[in-house]
UniProtKB/TrEMBL annotation:
Pfam families: DUF502. The chain crosses the membrane at residues 7-28, 48-69. This is DUF502 domain-containing protein. Keywords: Membrane, Transmembrane, Transmembrane helix. InterPro entries: COV1-like. It comes from Pseudidiomarina gelatinasegens. The lineage of its organism: Bacteria, Pseudomonadati, Pseudomonadota, Gammaproteobacteria, Alteromonadales.
Length: 202
């Protein structure tokens, strides 16, 4: 019986990540298809529409938006819907959180020394964190609260969508050669993830 349970658990650990990944990709594709297909059918007609055109057009739109954002004026136009959402009480928290998560995972607005190893005061315990704010940043409320010798560090939690934001002395941290996205993956998986060094053998 124990061997059967062992095989079952092992099978689940292999299948569940695949199933969840496929389900997420399927949801993403179906959502895009649902939104853009009626537009293409109204333009081309149902007889000329083929599956996958909606997703392909979405990729093209994303490329165009990303390319046009190079110009400051156009970038302000693309940022306008987000700015409106940030002023709406019901959507501000949701949009702001999702936007911050994407910025965090993509490494946007982070310097090369964003991932640090934090040593807790009075202890030998060390935690992997991501520097989110330093003192001296203009028009930033948290930055204005920081002394010159303190920084704000986000400490993600393992197997949980959450974490702690701590203000620690600069002397309590040491820089790690790691991207914020890799740090998030490593800590959220509790160190059990299959992280690989991006170093090729000579």
């Amino acid at each position: 019986m124990k061997r059967v349970i062992h095989y079952l658990l092992k099978g689940l650990t292999i299948l569940l990540p695949l199933v969840m990944t496929i389900a997420l990709v399927h949801w993403f594709l179906v959502t895009i298809e649902t939104w853009l297909r009626p537009i293409w059918e109204s333009i081309l007609g149902t007889q000329y529409y083929f599956p996958g055109l909606a997703f392909f057009s979405f990729v093209v739109i994303a490329l165009i938006v990303g390319y046009s954002a190079r110009w400051r004026f156009v970038n302000k136009i693309w940022q306008l819907p987000g700015s409106i959402m940030e002023k709406m009480p019901l959507l501000r928290s949701l949009y702001g959180t999702i936007n911050d998560v994407f910025d965090l995972m993509s490494g946007k607005s982070f310097s090369d020394e964003s991932v640090v190893l934090v040593t807790l005061p009075g202890a030998d315990v060390k935690l992997i964190g991501i520097v989110t704010k330093r003192s001296g940043e203009k028009n930033d409320r948290l930055s204005a609260m920081l002394d010159d010798d303190h920084i704000a560090v986000f400490l993600p939690m393992s197997y949980n969508v959450g974490g702690y934001m701590m203000i620690v002395p600069r002397t309590s941290v040491e820089t790690l050669d790691m991207s914020p996205a890799d740090a998030m993956q490593l800590t959220i998986s509790g160190g059990l993830g299959k992280n690989r060094n991006n170093v090729e053998d000579d």
